[in-house]
Amino acid sequence: MFRFRIKILDKYIFKEILSPFFTTLFFWTSLFIALVFKEVIGEILGKGIDTYKIIEYLIYLIGDKITTTIPIACLFAGILSTGRLSADSEIIAMRAAGISFKRIYFVYLVFGFLSMILVGFIYFYLGPISSKAKTDFEEWLRTYHSLSLVKSGRFMNIVDTETLGDYGQDIYAQFRDGSILKNVQIRKWKNNFNNTEEFSHTINAKMVQIIQAEKGQILTKLKENGEKENFIRLENGYMIETDPSWTKIEITDFRNGFMDFVLPTIQKKVGKLDVKPENYTFIELFEFLEKLEKGEHKIDFESLSENLNIKIDETEKGQRLPSIKEMKEYIKLKKIWLIQNLSKVDKPGGPTTQEYNRIAQTVFRYEIFLKDVEKTKRKFEIEIHKRIAIPIACLLFFYVSFPLGLVSKRSGKGMSFSLALFVFFFYYFLLMLGLSKAYDGAWPPAIGAWLADIGLLILGNYIMSIRTDEITFKFHPIKPLIYIYKKYIYNHPNYIKLENKMYKMIDKIKKVVAKKSYSNKK
User: Fold this and answer.
1) How many of the other CB atoms lie within 10 Å of CB of 140?
2) Which residues pair with 205 in a beta bridge?
3) Beta strands in 129-204 (DSSP E)
C-alpha cells in the first residue's frame, strides 16, 4: 500500500520558509490595518460604542486585508529563507550531496502553490464576506456618527441625510464622557440650494430650529421592524422652532423633563448603482453581470428625481433598471424626438412645455444611469480578473524569490533584500497602473488586471537566467509559436494544398506582370 511521506529535506526547507512567512505576514498585515484603523480609532474609542463592535470590525478588517499581505509575505519569505540557506552555505552543501537546484526549487514552488490556493479561497469567498461586513459596519458607524462622534467643544455637522432634504443640521456638546453629553446644542437650518450640489449653511440659510439642553445621553431602542435606532435623550432644556419665512415662533419647554432626539438616516447615493464588487463572492460577480446585461436589476429612480428636483410619474418608482442596450436605444429615440419637436412646443399638434421638459429630464436621468452602469460593469469585469491574477501572484513571487535569495558572500544578504523591495514596488506599480487604466476605460479589464503578473513572469525569467547555472528558463515567446507551426501546421495536408494554390497564384501574378512590362517596352 502506497503511503505518502514528506522527505526530511522538504520538511527542513518548508520550516525555513514558514518562519519568515508568518513574521512578514504579521508585520505587513499589522501595518495595513494600522493605516486604516488609525482613521477611526480615535473617533470610536470612549464614544459609547460597544467594545465587541470594535473587535468585530478588526476581524473584518483582517479578513479584508489578508489577501493583500499574503502575496507580499510570499516574496519576502522566499528571499529571506533562501538568503539564510545561501549565506550559511547550506545550499552549497545540498548541491555537494547531489541535490540539484531544481529539487530545492520544487519545495518553494509547492509552498507558492499552497499559498495561491489559500489566497484564492479567501479571495473567492471569505474575503468578500469580510469586506461586506466591514462596509456594513462603516455604514452603521455613519448612521451612528452624529451621536457617537460628537467631540467636546466642537460642532458636529450632519449632512447627506435622507429625511432632512434641503435642510442642514449639527450638534454641539461642551463636554462628553462616554455616552453622556453636557451642555448640548442642536441646530437645524433651511438651505437654498439653487440647483447646486455644493453649499454652505452660513450663506443663504435660515435657522429654523435650536435645541438647548443641560444633559444628553446616547441610547438605543428597537423599532417595530426589529432595527436598532440611536437617539439622544435630552434633559432640562428647551426647543425654539420657526418656519423658513420666520412668520411664527414656537417654544417647547422641557426644563423639568426630557425629550428624545432621533437623527434621520444617512441618504443613499443618488443616480448610481451603489454596489462594491469587492463585497461579492466570485460566483456572485458573474450573477450580477448577467443580471446587468439582461436588465433584471431593480433601482429606485425616485431618489434621483428628488435630488434633481424632477417630477416623475408613479409608474417610474422602483422600476426595473434597463439593460445597457435598452438604455442606449431609449436615449437615442428620445433625443430624436426632442430634436423633431423642438420647434413644435406649445403649438397645435406639438407637445406642451411641461411634456417636453419631462422627456428631456428623463433622457438626462437615463444618461446618468447609463454612464454609471457602464462604469459598474467595468469594475465587476476587472474584479473577476483580479480575483484570479492576485492568487497566481503568490506562486510568481516564490518563482522570483528563489533566484533573488541565491546570494554570494560578495553581495551579501542586503543585496537580495534590496532586490526584493524592488520587485515588490515593481509589481505594485504595474498593478496600480493597470487597474487605473482599466477603471478609466483606457485598457481592457483583462490587460489591466494581469499586467503586474505578466511583468513579474518576465522579470522572474530574466532573474532566473542570470542568477542560476542549472535553471535557465530564458523567455523566448517566438519559440513556442515556431514549434506549433512546424508540428501542427507545416505538414498538414490542408496547409500543403493551400501552399500549392498560393504558389500557383504567385506564378500567375508574375506572368501578368511580365507581360505588362514587355508591352510597355514595345
Assistant:
1) 16
2) 191
3) 154-158, 167-177, 180-191
Q: Which residues contact 522 (CB under 8 A, 6 or more apart)?
A: none
Q: Give the CB-side neighbour count of residue 175, counting CA atoms within 13 A.
A: 5
Question: Mean of the pLDDT values across residues 14-21?
Answer: 90
Q: Judge residue 292's burial from the number of C-beta atoms within 10 Å of its C-beta, 0-12 exposed, 13-18 middle, 19 or more buried.
A: buried
Which helix H or strand E contains 89, and what residues bound it? none
pTM, full prediction:
0.66
Alpha helices (H) along 45-156: 51-87, 90-96, 101-121, 127-148
> What DSSP character marks residue 152?
B
- The DSSP result for 227-279, as a single string, is -EEEEEEEEEEEEEEE-TT---EEEEEEEEEEEEEEPPPBPPPSSS----GGG
Question: How do residues 272-327 score in pLDDT, each as one tens digit?
Answer: 566 888 888 899 899 888 888 888 777 655 444 443 343 444 444 456 777 888 88
List the one residue out of 403, 426, 397 whose CA is nearest residue 415.
403
Q: Produce one character per residue of 200-219: b if its CB has 16 or more CB atoms within 10 Å, e if not.
A: ebeeebeebbebbbebbbbe
Cβ 358 vs Cβ 338: under 8 Å: no
CA-to-CA distance for 450 and 453, rounded, in angstroms? 5
pLDDT, tens digit (0-9, with 9 covering 90-100), for 445-468: 999 999 999 998 888 777 777 665
DSSP summary character for residue 319: P
Ramachandran angles phi, psi of 262, nearest 5°: -110, 130
Helix (H, G, I), strand (E, B) or coil at 489: helix
| Stretch among 103-112, 192-201, 441-450 having the lowest mean pLDDT | 192-201
| Position 269 pLDDT exceeds 70 | no
CB atoms within 10 A of CB 412: 13
Task: At 240, list the grid cell.
Answer: 425654539
- Cα-trace Rg, the chain: 33
Q: How many CB atoms lie within 10 A of CB 194?
A: 7
Residue 255 or residue 2, greater confidence: 255
What does each C-alpha distance from 239 to 154, 155, 210, 404, 422 come to in angstroms? 20, 18, 6, 71, 63
Q: Which residues contact 207 (CB under 8 A, 6 or more apart)?
A: 187, 188, 189, 242
Q: CB neighbours (10 Å) of residue 460?
A: 22
Give the pLDDT confidence score for residue 478 in this predicted structure.
45
- What contacts 199, CB < 8 A, 6 or more positions away? 191, 192, 193
